[in-house]
Amino acid sequence: MSARKLVRERFGGLELELETLADLDSAVNELLAREVAHPGELERDLCPYFGVVWPAARALAGELARRGPALVGRSVLELGCGLALPALVAAHLGARVTATDLHPDVPGFLARNLALNGLAADALEYVELDWRSAGLAEGPAARRFEYVLGSDILYEAGHPAPVARALAAHVAPGGRILLADPGRAYLQACLDELARLGFRSETEVVAVADPSLDRAGDTRTREVFLFALARG
User: Fold this and answer.
1) DSSP 108-137
2) Mean pLDDT (whole number) for 108-127
3) How far apart are CA 84 and CA 64, in angstroms?
4) What's the confidence (pLDDT) of residue 190?
5) Dist CA 189 CA 197 (whole Å)
6) What mean pLDDT is reported for the chain?
């Protein structure tokens, strides 16, 4: 099992403690070593990139914290949640939250992080979901939410269209998609698909802390694009 560490994240007056991987590079090397020992068993989807807090998650969590009381009682869905920082913030703010991902280690991290932050195990719902092949039910029975969230989920060439469709499929009438991205190559294709599906966006660029850039004790930041999208 890869080493873990605790990190603190603050958004205004809200502070969360998260269990994360101690070192992403070491975790990836450990996975590759297992592949050498057992060829053919490595799955790209099992790579441990979910196990750290990425700048886009901080940007999205900060946006939710700014909305504050507006989230009380609202239904919220996070796609590709990873460590689920935005989902945890939304749950703290009183939203009714569903977090989704595919990686088998996510539920364990999520359970520990709920406990670390004084949230009950049922403070949010976790659903295993592969957005490439299925949604939370299909057609008229599809579950829809007032807020649908995604942070840094456009990192492969095959992601833009399926991600856009998954985001759009689960937005309730009058609802919002909140999408945070560091400017990856596949972002525009996803936005184009969302526009084709009838969504208009408002864009903001925010600067958030990125400890991975800190090599000399300085506070380093990274710019993240934050999109609020709605139909019509």
Assistant:
1) HHHHHHHHHTT--TTSEEEEE--TTT--SS
2) 96
3) 13
4) 97
5) 12
6) 87
